[in-house]
């Protein structure tokens, strides 16, 4: 079974960067996929990757991460969209959606201007891997 | 007598005889984008044919520790630049030793490589704060809209570190420099082939221009 956990921005808004990362990691390590309202700051994303690498082991292989920007102008160019995204990333805010999933569950998150594709591993085979 | 005079001057003007610190130019990017190949090409071009930064491999995470080459003196169009070149491990959000098994590494070696690779990613991120300027090396045959690319660029922007993007592997058929230009229009993008040495002059001009 695939579990998605929604986190509204106000749940992390008043947390320090360290506590935000710790909260997200704790959920991902329970094999849940996080749908978080808003974005982390750029430095927090790097911090999340650092923390992820510290935690990698036989069962936990890392994360898949993707941020979606709802302010994208459908008629606008992708370049403009990414530029806006990078600028907004510096601050971190409640706009957009962040998807974070454990790499053992989420194989890949494909992003293109119009849609997000979340490819998952075969959960049965994952179970087998975990049971080795 | 001369030494005494030098010491006196040194006290008066401490920076006069202090060892000059060169700027640090880092190579960042996802695994297998060609950071070490680019570093090797820069070393060959400016330090001599026999000088290499590190070994390259088809298997991801070949570079798992920070590598440095000091005192690279670059001259371009009347401008000069001396810097230390820092090659960093590829930044990734996941590392699975089983991926290395596909390359016929044995289990023990694969696990060790994965463990070292995780440390390498952490080290690469920590070194971001030390960089004066960064060459982001991206594989021009792959989709540039990956979160790792965006996170790297976002972190450099957050630190106000000047960036030039090297769209590597233009010698390959699938190369698409335009897609990288479209993804990151706020940065100079230079299509290169580090392996064949194509367009390196243009990259050097861009580096010198960026830091001067």
Strand % of chain A is 25-35%
Please summarize the sheet with the most strands of chain B.
Answer: 6 strands, mixed
Number of strands of chain A: 6
N-to-C order of helices and strands of chain A: EHEHEHEEEH
Query: What class would the helix/strand composition of chain B place it in?
Result: alpha/beta
List keywords for this structure.
heterodimer; A: alpha+beta; Methyltransferase, Cobalt-precorrin-4 Transmethylase, Domain 2; two-stranded antiparallel sheet; 4 helices; 6 strands; 35% helix; B: 212 residues; alpha/beta; Rossmann fold; 6-stranded mixed sheet; 38% helix; globular
Task: Provide an overview of this structure.
The complex is a heterodimer of chains A (132) and B (212). In chain A, helix 1 (17-28) crosses helix 2. Mean pLDDT of chain A is 81; it is low at 71-76 and 126-132. Chain A is globular. Chain A is built from 4 helices and 6 strands, in the order E-H-E-H-E-H-E-E-E-H. In chain A, strand 5 and strand 6 form a beta hairpin. Chain A is α+β, with helices and mostly antiparallel strands and 132 residues long. With 212 residues, chain B is an alpha/beta fold. Chain B has a 6-stranded mixed β-sheet, with helices on both faces. Chain B starts with a helix and ends with a helix. At the A-B interface, helix 2, strand 3, helix 3 and strand 5 of A face helix 4, helix 5 and helix 6 of B.
Question: What's the arrangement of secondary structure elements?
Answer:
The complex is a heterodimer of chains A (132) and B (212).
Chain A: E1 3-7, H1 17-28, E2 32-37, H2 42-55, E3 63-68, H3 78-89, E4 97-102, E5 106-111, E6 116-120, H4 123-130
Helix pairs in contact in A: 1-2
Chain B: H1 2-12, E1 23-28, H2 35-47, E2 67-76, E3 79-87, H3 97-101, H4 107-127, E4 133-139, H5 147-158, E5 163-168, H6 177-183, E6 189-191, H7 200-211
């Amino acid at each position: 079974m695939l579990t998605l956990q929604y986190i509204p921005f106000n749940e992390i808004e008043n947390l320090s960067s360290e506590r935000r990362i710790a909260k997200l990691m704790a959920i991902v390590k329970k094999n849940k996929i996080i749908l978080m309202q808003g974005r982390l700051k750029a430095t927090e994303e790097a911090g999340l990757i650092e923390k992820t690498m510290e935690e990698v082991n036989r069962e936990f292989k890392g994360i898949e991460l993707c941020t979606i920007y709802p302010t994208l102008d459908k008629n606008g160019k992708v370049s403009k969209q990414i530029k806006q995204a990078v600028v907004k990333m510096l601050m971190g805010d409640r706009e957009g959606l962040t998807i974070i999933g454990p790499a053992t569950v989420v194989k890949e998150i494909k992003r293109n201007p119009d849609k997000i594709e979340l490819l998952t591993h075969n959960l049965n085979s994952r179970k087998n891997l975990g049971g080795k | 007598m001369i030494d005494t005079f030098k010491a006196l001057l040194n006290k008066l003007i401490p920076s006069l005889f202090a060892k000059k610190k060169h700027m640090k130019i880092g190579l960042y990017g996802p695994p297998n984008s060609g950071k070490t190949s680019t570093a090797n090409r820069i070393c060959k071009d400016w330090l001599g044919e026999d000088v290499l930064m590190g070994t390259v491999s088809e298997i991801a995470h070949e570079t798992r520790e920070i590598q440095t080459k000091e005192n690279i003196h670059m001259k371009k169009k009347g401008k000069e630049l001396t810097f230390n070149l820092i090659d960093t491990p590829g930044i990734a959000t996941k590392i699975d030793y089983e991926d290395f098994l596909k390359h016929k590494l044995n289990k023990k070696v694969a696990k060790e490589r994965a463990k070292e690779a995780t440390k390498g990613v952490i080290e690469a991120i920590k070194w971001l704060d030390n960089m004066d300027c960064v060459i982001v090396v991206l594989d021009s045959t792959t989709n540039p809209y990956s979160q790792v690319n965006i996170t790297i660029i976002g972190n450099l922007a957050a630190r106000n570190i000047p960036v030039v993007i090297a769209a590597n592997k233009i010698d390959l058929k699938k190369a698409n420099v335009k897609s990288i230009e479209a993804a990151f229009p706020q940065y100079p993008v230079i299509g290169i082939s580090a392996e064949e040495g194509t367009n390196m002059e243009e990259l050097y001009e861009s580096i010198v221009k960026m830091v001067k």
